[in-house]
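Worked example (supplementary).
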Amino acid sequence: SQQGEEDPQALSIQEGENATMNCSYKTSINNLQWYRQNSGRGLVHLILIRSNEREKHSGRLRVTLDTSKKSSSLLITASRAADTASYFCATDHTGGFKTIFGAGTRLFVKA
Amino acid sequence: SAVISQKPSRDICQRGTSLTIQCQVDSQVTMMFWYRQQPGQSLTLIATANQGSEATYESGFVIDKFPISRPNLTFSTLTVSNMSPEDSSIYLCSVKRGVQETQYFGPGTRLLVL
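After joint prediction of all chains, the assembly is encoded as:
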């Protein structure tokens, strides 16, 4: 399978709460990217973290990367109803140039 | 960043016919890719579009079914041939400027095969 794994598959929270999504992968990577996709629409790039980085922030987003565990997490703080979307991690593997996507997490933020 | 447009944005096609999807980028890019996203699923890489040579296909995808052209560094086409209802998906064009750079996506082409 091309895909990495993400969990949870679906997450439902109240507005104002934090949302955490996890991504695991199998082989060494150059970098890892997180994307958001609103229902049936295009992908929006959120953040790229390189293999030599451990944490990055962008507004309400915080991404961590643990290469020893081959995993990453995306934290959305103080969530809003507009954050309702599917979130995907995507990895660029060492020695290649293709980007492979995880299965995605569907986040639902209740107002 | 890169601005990517795709044509058509959506189409409804009859089984057995073919559809060609166009992808145009606003500037030259090194790498172009085609992905498929089946309903409710994640993205699956179909192939890497190579400028001036045959595309590189992923396991499970073949040139006869998904012929790809890339005549220059800003344009590519993907044809979905001899379509069946199982080909109903969103098809997305994607680009990268370098091996370790951000990957950008077009808006997608929504295909429904009846």
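Two points are worth noting when inspecting this output. The two ends of chain B are 36 Å apart (CA to CA). Chain B has a mean pLDDT of 94.
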